[in-house]
Specification:
Length: 212
DNA sequence: AATCCATCCAACCGCGGCAGG
DNA sequence: GCCTGCCGCGGTTGGATGGAT
């Protein structure tokens, strides 16, 4: 088993406080020089991670709600393992937290339901491939901006085809995955299964806004 | 009470993108 | 165009914890 080059150890309260003080004073930047400035015996990346995932004031701790879980599932179907993008849609949640929650809870649940292939790390690819976004395959997207465009296009697409979606009947995964080979197949998201789910998938707003 | 085992999640690593020189 | 440093991301690891035996 590979031995990590730097020993894993938890952050003490004092370390946290030093980090908080420094970031509040100097902002979220210059991470590489932060350890020297604060006297912390951590690397800059470690400090950054600690701040972004746990110390930042707007971090939301605690269990994920059902609506959050639904949203994660949907976004993962669209984006695959783009955890930072997914987390961006969940106010107060971090990519690490979403990723861990996915791996420890949701993935297991979907496997039990027969809705997720454990050998595939990217459920989203299957959905994207069978969508009409054939020229915007998410798996090939190189940055968040492009991915954002894809999401927005997909949102438009979903809206366009909303009235084509049947009422509440779960889709047959196998059939639909096979159908992914067909470039003429329409995206068939079961929106009715998630009546409260907001699909306003722009990156700059949160997921509750488009009803007014 | 002791041990084993599975699970969770905080933390680390490696890599790619980007900006500045 | 190349190099270097910084930043951010996704994948992985390993310690902590709790349940089962």
């Amino acid at each position: 088993m590979r031995r990590p080059s730097s020993e894993k150890r938890s952050w003490s309260k004092e370390e946290d406080q030093r980090l908080i003080d420094h970031v509040q004073k100097h902002g979220e930047r210059c991470w590489p020089s932060l350890p020297r400035a604060t006297g912390l015996r951590r690397c800059g990346k470690s400090c950054r991670l600690r701040w972004l995932n746990y110390l930042k004031p707007d971090i939301k701790r605690g269990d994920f709600g059902e609506d959050e879980e639904d949203l994660i599932i949907r976004l993962h179907a669209l984006l695959g393992n783009r955890w930072s993008l997914i987390a961006g849609r969940l106010p107060g949640r971090t990519d690490n937290e979403v990723k861990n929650y996915w791996n420890s809870h949701i993935r297991k649940k979907l496997i039990q339901m027969g809705r997720h292939d454990p050998n595939s790390n990217n459920v989203g690819d299957r959905y994207i491939k069978r969508s009409t976004l054939n020229s915007n395959n998410i798996a090939n997207q190189k940055d968040d901006h492009e991915a954002s465009n894809v999401v927005n296009n997909l949102h438009n697409n979903v809206t366009t085809h909303k009235n084509l979606i049947d009422d509440g009947e779960e889709e047959d995964d196998d059939d639909n995955h096979q159908a992914s080979e067909s470039s003429t197949s329409k995206p068939k998201f079961n929106l009715n299964a998630f009546p409260d789910l907001n699909l306003d998938l722009t990156l700059t707003t949160t997921y509750h806004s488009n009803n007014n």
